[in-house]
Amino acid sequence: MVDMKKIVVAGAGGFIGGHLAKELLEKGHQVRAVDIKPLNEWYQVFPEADNLVLDLRLKENCYQAVNGYNEVFNLAADMGGMGFIENNKAACMLSVLINTHLLMAAKDCGIDRYFYASSACVYNGEKQTDPDNPGLKESDAYPALAEDGYGWEKLFSERMCRHFREDFGLTCRVARFHNVYGPHGTYDGGREKAPAAMCRKVIEASVTGNKEIVIWGDGHQTRSFMYIDDCIKGIWDIMYSNIEEPINLGSSEMVSINQLVDMVEDIAGIKLDRKYDPDAPKGVRGRNSDNTLIQKYLGWEPSIPLKKGMKKTYEWIREQMEKDQKNKKGVNKYNR
Ligand code: NAD
Predict the structure, then answer these.
(1) Which atom, in ligand 1's list, is nearest to the CA of 154?
(2) Among residues 43, 150, 181, 227, which one is catalytic?
(3) 36 lines ligand 1 (CB under 6 A)
(4) Is residue 150 among the annotated active site residues?
(5) Residue 60 contacts by C-beta under 8 Å, 6 or more apart in sequence?
(6) Which of these, 120, 218, 299, 336, could form a disulfide with 178 (CB 3.0-4.6 Å)?
(7) 194-223+253-287+306-335 architecture in CATH?
(8) CATH ID of 6-181+226-249, from 3.40.50.720, 3.40.50.150, 1.10.3470.10, 3.20.20.140
(9) pLDDT tens per residue, range 278-297
């Protein structure tokens, strides 16, 4: 039985924030859900939450968001997949205002616990040049050579959390997410990440009969992907742990992008002609999560294999695309 707490979820209109708000409500907590997007664009809306539309880059909005509450999960950021972060570095860096002002408000309003969503993009690029990445350890973030723009903002914000803890006694927890995927997230429009993009492209191919799929880079680049349910459990475990330093939260089941496409083709029961685009944004060559620390401290291990999670994600995206098609929303998505 958990004590009922008043918890703010910043970025609750987004993918992970929406799932987290749902989980916290199910656990019996009072939730204030905050996002900059109009309510009708949130992936999940819960009428029982206190839903606020606020730009959290603004200091006064952060004070309004946290006032009267006990804890804060900061999942708000201007972000997306490689296609977005490589072309929107300034916008990504401006998310520094969200975390800075939320931390100030948390300190001044007497918040008990604060969670910050960092990223594997903080890791030194020179340790990610080989597709056969042995797994990034937490110490591999330094010496610092983070992903330009987005990664530097995350690294700076991690340190801001650390110094609010050291100097002001604010209890902060920081998780470095490795790619998270699942239903109720972005699958088109330019911010989508590889798993959702692959599902969408395979669905488009099977609907239109155009059997070609475009893959960014040569397809040999590697990543690991964590299903959303594992991520939510990990966020919870880290928030209520004694772990003061940033810690990896990700899967260590590394696959190449080609293997990810194989998997989606299997799920769809289709084989496509692959066309590789060497000029498209690709990110680092190889990235994986070393889970030694999280296993040692929390015994946390992802429970959902990639194929199973991808199947659920694929089904959800297919349903959404069918609905989009029926509603004739915007352009004909299958012909783009
Ligand atoms: P998302 O884009 O779905 O959610 C982020 C939400 O923040 C969006 O709904 C957006 O509208 C909101 N937001 C942006 N600017 C805001 C502002 N000024 N004020 C209020 N809200 C604002 O992304 P996500 O995948 O749910 O990611 C959540 C967090 O996890 C982010 O901090 C992200 O950087 C981090 N992260 C995610 C992944 C991943 O694979 N999804 C990987 C590493 C780190």
Answers:
(1) 34
(2) 150
(3) yes
(4) yes
(5) none
(6) 120
(7) Alpha-Beta Complex (3.90)
(8) 3.40.50.720
(9) 999 989 999 999 999 999 99
